[in-house]
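Posting for a labmate who doesn't have an account.
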Amino acid sequence: MISIPYKAKQFSVFTIKLLIVIGAFYFIYQKISTDPNLNWEDSKKFILKKTSLTELIIILLFSFFNRFIEILKWQNLVASFKKINLKQATEQVLVALTLGVFTPYGIGEYVGKTMFYKKNKAKNIILLNLLCNGIQMVVVVVFGGIGFFILGHTKLGISIFGIISVIIFVVYLVRKLKMNFLGIFFNSNHPISKQIHSKNIALGTTRFLILAHQYYYLFVVYDIHLPYITLLFTISVVYLLANSLPSFQLFDFAIKGSVAMYFFGELGINQWIVVFMSTLMWVLNIVLPVIIGSYFVLKFKSKSH
């Protein structure tokens, strides 16, 4: 009598995991096969013609370190209440990424990470994920705001830094008034140390610089030679505006691609090259990790921590 419901439960869990993986691959296939802007035959020829083996390895290393830094960020934040090893952090980040591709702003990512912990830790994990993603957004806003000044969009730059100043002032007031917002989520036994916050900021900044320089390196590889500062901060502006728009992670490249076409178009860069590189960045930094994450989804087992 007991074995039947247990087997039924195991089958249901396996079916859900399989549907998640099939769904991820279906959405990826649909986007790649139906987008009229993506000519994969031309793209393949272009890559083979323009990219040497050494350059391809360097491009892939950028993607590896981008995701590796994200894994280190998560490992660092979880250390506020529990030590996890690199393998555990990798599994949690990639499973969460795979679940997040279906949802606006990657909401599924929050659900994915909570599955690895007891229910009473759910609020902690959600907040840690907010801190993990939040610092990334702050870094993008800072670099993007500077980018607006560099590119001559002074009013937008002033507006962005005005918003940043207000946020900093509010945070300062909250600290002065000793309003422990984190206490809503955390037990006093599990505070987040300054060391963990500082490391989170450093890793978040490093990750953004890796992504931006991967984009920059693609421009260099594909014979787009513009001043380093101009390209770097145009990339920063593109990331800022693209990340400000609600979207599914799966269609992230379409949002970034459309924004990129406008700003890089102002620099005289061919639109096909812009679409191609935005798509390539998406494949390298979203599709490949999701493929690996699908393996971890299939072997996932709920754990007690």
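Reply:
Got it, the structure tokens are right above this. The CA atoms of residues 145 and 158 lie 8 Å apart.
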